Amino acid sequence: MKTSATIERKSFFKETVKPTGIIIPDHPIYVQANCAQKGSWVLGEKSLGNENLTFFVLAVLFSRELNPYKEKEIAIATIFLTPIDDNTLKPQLVYAIKIRDQDSGRKGSLSNFAARTAEMMATGVDPREVIWTAKFINKSGNLPNGDPYNCAVIDFEYRFVKTDEEDAILANCVLVLEEDFKLKKLQQIALPPIVQMEGDNS
Question: Of 67, 113, 162, 197, which is the most buried if we count CB atoms within 10 A?
Answer without folding.
Answer: 113
